[in-house]
Structure formats: structure tokens, C-alpha cells
Amino acid sequence: EAQVTQNPRYLITVTGKKLTVTCSQNMNHEYMSWYRQDPGLGLRQIYYSMNVEVTDKGDVPEGYKVSRKEKRNFPLILESPSPNQTSLYFCASSSWTERNTEAFFGQGTRLTVV
Amino acid sequence: QQPVQSPQAVILREGEDAVINCSSSKALYSVHWYRQKHGEAPVFLMILLKGGEQKGHEKISASFNEKKQQSSLYLTASQLSYSGTYFCGTESGGNKLTFGGGTRVLVKP
Predict the structure, then answer these.
(1) CA of A79: how far to CAs of A7, A51, A52, B79, in Å?
(2) Least Cα separation, residue B88 to chain A (angstroms)
(3) What pLDDT tens digit does each residue of chain B (109 aa) get?
(4) B chain contacts of residue A103, beta-carbon cutoff 8 Å
(5) Are B23 and B48 in contact (CB under 8 A)?
């Protein structure tokens, strides 16, 4: 079964305490990405990755880091979280080839920074 | 810059049709469409590439007019399951995806 797994689903943390949200996919997709979703602002792309060791900034990368050491994993790192990073986060995995066009989102991580 | 979706919301009766538009100020390479139900993750519907090819998913289809930098999503003979928020995502080269603000669709019996 095609799956994008994010952990944790819910997280409350304090300002400045480093955290990592994990994302893993089992479809051998090359393209993975992170989004945040805020009321009234819709979905905004944070970072994306075209393949292993290739990452690029999306529209709102400030305050976030990512890495892509393996094809299946794409963790999102907040080195020093701040309250304005309180949001709903989604990881997505996609294939945009001629033979295979599909995209799947993880179930989301609701992050609260106090 | 974020693409503009219109309308912001639409209410339909089962069986009615609706059109959602997505316009960009940038030249577009592709347009992606997603649907998100309340409390759930977005679900991919389709992608349209330059060339204006119309695609379909169930009774939902879309077109892409690259000259107008615009895409339209057509909900035909709507079903209750079509309710949700529809997002377009646009790509202007470089593989970065920028989403519109969403269109809320409510289909009533």
C-alpha cells in the first residue's frame, strides 16, 4: 500500500528546543516536499527535494532545515522553533514522470510552539 | 506569487456543475489540482502540463490555457463526496510548487 508516514502527529514544544519531524515514503518516489498550512494562507511549500542529496527552498524556508540522505526519508528540522512556526505540517511524496503521475501526502503533524 | 483561485466558495446541489478557476501572473509549466476534506490530508487529483491537455478524474476534469496562464477545474454532475476545499498548485519551472488560497465546495443533497 502506498504510504507517506509522518511522525509525530501532534507535538507541543517550547521556544528554542530543537525538533525533527520525520517523513518516510515506500513508493520509491524521487520528489519529496514539505508544506505548512495555516488558516487563511493555504498550503505553502517549505522545502522540496528532487532526489537524494538534492534539496531546494520553497516559498517559506526561513527557520527550517531538511536533509535527503536516503530516497525514502525526508526529515524536517526546526533548529530553534518559534511561536510563529506553530502550524499544520504536511510531507508529500510525488512522481511526475510520463509513465507515473501521482502524489501522496502524509497525515500531517500539528505543531504548537509555546 | 500565489495563484488566485475563484470563486472562494461555492454551494451546489447534487447533480449540479461548477467551475473553479486558477490564475497566475507568471508563465506556467504545470498546474496541479488537489482536494482536501476537513481534518484530512490533501489528495492529488491531477496534473496538467503545458499544451492545454484536458485531464479527468472521476467526473472531475481540468484544462490548462498556458497563454492565459490559467487552469480551470470542472466538477460535473457533482456528488456529495465532492465536498471539500480544492487547491491549485502552480509550477513556473524549477520544480517549486506554489498553491492558491483554495476554493471551498459544499455539495448538498
Answers:
(1) 17, 23, 22, 45
(2) 10
(3) 889 999 999 999 999 999 999 999 988 889 999 999 999 999 999 988 876 566 666 789 998 988 889 999 999 999 999 999 999 999 987 788 999 999 999 999 9
(4) 32, 34, 44
(5) no
